[in-house]
Amino acid sequence: MKRTLIIGALLLTIISNSQAQITSHHTIVFDSSAEKEEGIDIAQYLQTAVKTATGFELRIADDKQKISGKTITIQRSDEMNDTFDYQISVKGNNIKIVGGGCWALTKAVRLLQEGLTQEKKLRDIQCQGNIYAEFLFPRQEDSNLRILDDNIWQYDDESKIPDAWKAIGKDCRNSVRFRALAEVILAYRPDILTLQEYSPAMNKYLAPELEKYGYANCTQGNDSHWNFTPIFYNKESVKPEESKYVLYTPEDFSNGGTKSLTAAAFTLIDNKKRFCVINTHLWYKEEQIAPGSNLARASQLRLCMAIGEQFLSKYKNNDGTDLPLFTTGDLNSQLHSTGIQQLLDAGYMPVQDVATVYGDRQCGYHVCSAKDGFSRKNPFHGTSEDFYGAIDHFFVYSHHNDGKKYGGAEVKVFQRICPYFTIEFTDHYPNYADIKL
Prior knowledge:
alpha+beta; Chitobiase, domain 2; Deoxyribonuclease I, Chain A; 2 domains; six-stranded mixed beta sheet; globular
């Protein structure tokens, strides 16, 4: 008798799951303690996805509210094996979506929407997977160039996890951290990638991974100095014409050879349009700690401008028109500084000011160090929403501009990439621009 009851219960569960569907009576439930992008933001994204697929606009509630009836629970979980793992499971009429981070949750929501649009039964929508190396974020419509910039934070001691990181159960060594760095790059698939604090120790792990997906380094430097400010390019979409690495001197202001610039000229393979890029990392100490630091940074920026003029004078489009120059990097300077004022006076424009679709004005800087661990806190002036607190920057410049077009280039979008998991492995939030040439 007991066995019959068990079999009967199993059959009822199978029938229930096979007939279960999302209805207007479902409630989306999110984790009230989660980061915004892993809580209310992903819940609203799920609400839109369900409405698009079914026409039902479901109610949203957090997990502190009393909820009765059918639910779709969505949450980030540390129990996932990987930041990029996701799972959709169904029990009766209730659905649970779990991911290791907001990108994994986003992927799961897309799969749920796809299944609902195809009118699949809920049991057939159940799945699990990993988003690593997927191209998740298509570029802005009508753009054909994406440049992604990131100060990746140099921590090269493979023998030790710093105490501040060990205390929170996080591993910041290169052998672990490189994979998350690669995921950001591969999720956005830039044509050009500019990095700062890129050490030989990180290169050991990250370069082979990027090479699998078609990325190459313009120059690793010269025989005597490693290039900590490289420019990578996607071999499928752009062709390098020339690159130059310059170490800042004197050594007093190069911080062990880590402060430098890299300049390069490229041609888009599809339409043969040309453009130039400078990637740099300036001297870092504050004036009150190391007198002369402000002037040192200003001098380094003048060298960037001089190298930029060399490239713009040497390279033109095939029809003889001027090229755009994009300058990225960790300038360790805010917009009001003496050094950056030189750029502004010369006609360099912050891309968030000329973006025609969206220009992100968040600061982009946060705490990340061996001593302090990581957090969203911004140790500099300004808030995380105030671009004037930013010290990493992205400029566009040309000998010829027409309105918001520089050398024929239209910056459509400038965006900072701020999911919580990015704080664990990068000295600044990564940022990117989608551009039309």
